[in-house]
Amino acid sequence: MSWLSTEAARVARRARAAREAVERHPGRVAGAVGSVLLFTSVTAFGLAEYGPQPKLPPVSLVQQPLRLDLGAQLQQLDAQPQVAYTSTEVRRADSVDSLLRRLQVTDPAQLRALAADASVRRVLREAYGPVSAEVDSIGRLHRLQAQLSPVHQANGVSWTQLDVVAQDDGSLRSSLHAMQAQAQTRIVSGVVHSSLFAAADAIGMPEQVVAQLGNLFAGEVDFRRDLRPGDRFRVAYRVYVAQGRVLRIGRILAARVSTHDGVHEAVWFDSPQKPAAAGYYTPGGGSIARAFLLSPLAYNRMTSGYGWRISPIFHKPEFHKGIDLAVPIGTPVRTIADGRVVHVGPGTGYGKYVKIDHPGGFATIYSHLSKYEVHVGEQVKQGEVVALSGNTGWSTGPHLYFQFFVNGRPVNPNLIAHYSPKGKAVPTSLKPQFLAEARVGTQLLDLLPRTAVASAGLD
After folding, report:
1. What does the alpha-carbon distance between residue 449 and residue 2 come to, in Å, rounded to a whole number?
2. Pairing mode, if any, of strands 385-389 and 362-372?
3. 385, 192, 240, 455 alpha-carbon torsion, rounded to 10°
4. Where are the strands (E) in 32-155, listed by range?
5. What's the pTM?
6. DSSP 8-state symbol, 390
7. CA–CA dist 13, 22 (Å, integer)
8. Which residues is 446 bridged to in the sheet?
9. What pLDDT digit, counting tens, does each position of 7-44 carry?
């Protein structure tokens, strides 16, 4: 009993010491107890699940063999030729065989059949734009489509679409479908930074419209010398569209060129009451037509002006009696005015050249040519192509040498505008009709912000 008495006394002493400690430091003891309970509860949350757990059924696995015969399916897929869509343009030297081979048609039997088909041969003569085809992976043609030459009419453009379809028996079935193009008016606005052509290209204006613009203001603006960075232009022109593709570029309806020295405007006017009055006029009805164009080329770069210079051939001073215009060989050269051709042939220094006499004592010479397009005695109209530029005669590179004569005396061609009288204004009887139509034209030019492109189905 002595051992039990001793242990009981020890326990009593520890309990009394613990009670005294709690009484002396109650906050510390409470915090320690709370911490123990906190970590205990977290451990319980992470490891224990609450409530009675249901007894899950045993997992059963069902296996069923599946037989896939993919070999036969793959063989069938491999046996099916894959169809590709190709397109090309008809070239000048094309035969039916060369055209079809460029479209990836290589089946020998079909090539022979297509070469004998009258519709396919017609494509070589009349195709307008891309020729498209559906051709399978073994070189057999399934379908060929081509648009034949359009017919330009006063109220639009019509054309014929040719379809050639290969039949299962190897024969060909051809069909023709009449199509009609929709007339649209497009409006563009651009700013010149380096040249008119660069500015037009930046906004997607077609080259045909650029050439029209140059011709339109040829009596007022020299586009190779007069334009400066910051000059602006706006053009409304007609196009004919079918199936999302432009079939034809029409005429300019209205145009405005703003240069450092003024604003030049023109609108197209065509009256059924007086067809002879059709033409371009200022918005007020004055004529913009001039007796002379300012240049025989739509666009060029002048490399040598009128006056004294060092001859590039003889390397000594000479008086240059015309101007040199740098252009690639084969560039169309147009006469600047109505007249009669008086010389077509070679000349010392000139190489191949054409001379034209114009009414009122004027004459022009176009030299260093590569090809003639007129003959002596022929009457020509302003803007008509009389030759192609070249590099013949005393020439150090492809260019056109252009001379302008007044009463037999050479005059600086850059002064042509001073000798060019204006044409006739709108007839008085048509003035009210003209002013109404001109107002529409100028409003078209004001539709866009400074640099933009638009298209609409306007008549």
Report:
1. 116
2. antiparallel
3. -170
4. 83-88, 127-136, 141-148, 151-153
5. 0.52
6. B
7. 14
8. none
9. 666 656 766 665 665 556 555 545 554 444 444 444 33
- Which residue in the block uniquely carries the two structure tokens 């009593």? 12
Separation of alpha carbons 4 and 55, rounded Å = 51
pLDDT tens track for 175-217: 888 777 788 899 999 999 988 888 888 898 988 898 888 878 8
What residue type is 212 in one-letter code? Q
What are the structural domains, with CATH classification, of the chain?
Answer: 81-180 (3.10.450.350), 183-289+424-456 (3.10.450.350), 301-419 (2.70.70.10)
Q: Which amino acid is at 191?
A: V
Tokens of 448: 């866009």
Q: Cβ atoms within 10 A of the Cβ of 349, count?
A: 13
Tens-place pLDDT, residues 75-93? 665 666 678 888 888 887 8
Give yes or no for a contact between 136 and 106, defined as CB atoms under 8 angstroms apart.
Answer: no
Q: In whole angstroms, what is the distance from residue 426 CA to residue 268 CA?
A: 11
Question: And the tokens for 147?
Answer: 């648009």
Residues comprising the chain, all counted? 459
